[in-house]
């Protein structure tokens, strides 16, 4: 099964997402900020990143831009998870390089459908 990287500074949400994704059959990596996310992607090459956009040290916006500007990591899809829900925030996520955007609090049914859609387009056998 594919590996998903969860990048979020909220430890409780990271753990919840990890348990939920493992139950769905995924391998999971977790990190707490954008710098750790960039480093993990360069080493591990996950199939998908669930990126919190508001993190300390390096935010998700910056991490996404760095990953999408690197030829070695630009193909890894990024699903933004953000508490920002103002008009234009989804467009800002896409402009930063995210492949999709979901508002927090996360609806796990919607998230599962989004993950499936992204991975199905990337892996023909998913």
What does this structure look like?
It is a single chain. This protein is of the alpha/beta class and 126 residues long. The protein has one domain: Rossmann fold (3-Layer(aba) Sandwich), CATH 3.40.50. Helices cover 44% and strands 19% of the residues. The model has no long low-confidence stretch (mean pLDDT 91).
Keyword list:
single chain; 126 residues; alpha/beta; Rossmann fold; five-stranded parallel beta sheet; 5 strands; 44% helix; 19% strand
Break the fold down into its secondary structure elements and pairings.
Layout: E1 3-7, H1 11-23, E2 27-31, H2 34-44, E3 48-52, H3 60-68, E4 78-82, H4 89-96, E5 100-103, H5 108-122
Parallel strand pairs: 1-2, 1-3, 3-4, 4-5
Helix pairs in contact: 2-3
- At the fold tier of CATH, the topology name is Rossmann fold
Unreliable sequence segments: none
Largest sheet: 5 strands, parallel
Q: How many strand elements?
A: 5
Quick structural overview:
This protein is 44% helix and 19% strand.
